[in-house]
Amino acid sequence: MEERYQRNRFYITLEEQQKVKQTKVLFVGAGLGSVIAECALRLGFETITLIDSGVVDTSDLCWQNYEERDVGRLKIESLKSRLEKINTSARIKIINSDLELKDLYEIISEHGIVVDSLEPSSHLSEMFNQCSKKMDIPIIRPYNLGWAGLATIAKLSNDRLKDLRENENLGKDRVGFSKYIADYFRYWGAPQIWLEDMINQFEKGSDNLNLPQLSVASWIVGGLVANLLFDIATEKDYKKIPQFYFLTAKR
To answer: At residue 158, does pLDDT exceed 70?
Structure first.
């Protein structure tokens, strides 16, 4: 095993490390995706494509993988620079999300796994929905739930993500999804009170700010999704929607 990944030994075999290195990962969204991309790169995924058009805002610094000097810059440009400093041999490609549908279809088809951290209501998300019905590529969707990280995996060939979201009762935004998760745990006798309290306070608020996020969940989900990327790349079993992965130390 090459020196860079020697500390991976015993956890990861040489054959598995090679499979990871050869797997191309597409990150659609560079917010939460910025944390996941770095964890994935350090694990050994060296071919990464980033799609986004957003710029770094000061409010991103508490939960995304950026620095003060990045504020005002395109997220994908800042993230590319950071990743290349970690591994100069990595192949990091950036694409502004001002795309045509045919372009997005071609981009997705060139990759082995997609990590979709888009807001469901975004324009790019709807484009992604339209072309995904022809895909047979695993799609990981990560969520920052403040004190918890959550991820779902879908492998679609016939169903659009739009239909999938409706079947999951995810609603049109992250608030609807948070409610779904809170209701799920309450139904099974393990209520996540901290999550329910956040939802109640957010819905009663009048500050018109985005859904609260914490760095804790960003890094939890970063490790969680890197693990899932490894499982998919090395052809291990993994749970698919409607099952999901949920990690928290909060009680």
So the answer is: no
Residue 132, exposed/middle/buried by CB under 10 A (0-12, 13-18, 19+)? buried
Structure tokens belonging to residue 5 = 């990944």
Q: Which residue has the higher pLDDT, 130 or 102?
A: 102
- Preceding amide of 191 cis, omega within 30: no
The residue behind tokens 């997609």 is 114
Enter the tokens of residue 136: 């047979």
d(CA 147, CA 125): 25
CA dist 249 and 76 (Å) reads 31
Report the C-alpha gap between 21 and 46 in whole angstroms. Answer: 6
pTM confidence score: 0.92
Give dist(CA 196, CA 54) in Å, integer: 30
Tokens of 202: 């957010």
pLDDT higher than 60, residue 171: no
d(CA 135, CA 124): 16
- Count Cβ atoms below 10 Å from residue 156 Cβ, excluding itself: 20
Q: How far apart are CA 192 and CA 117, in angstroms?
A: 23
Other beta carbons within 10 Å of 57:
15
23, with CB counted inside 10 A (0-12, 13-18, 19+), is: buried
Q: Give me the count of residues in the chain.
A: 251
DSSP collapsed to 3 states, 48-109: EEEEECCECCHHHCCCCCCCHHHCCCEHHHHHHHHHHHHCCCCEEEEEECCCCHHHHHHHHH
Mean pLDDT value across the chain: 89
What is the predicted pLDDT for the residue at 52? 92
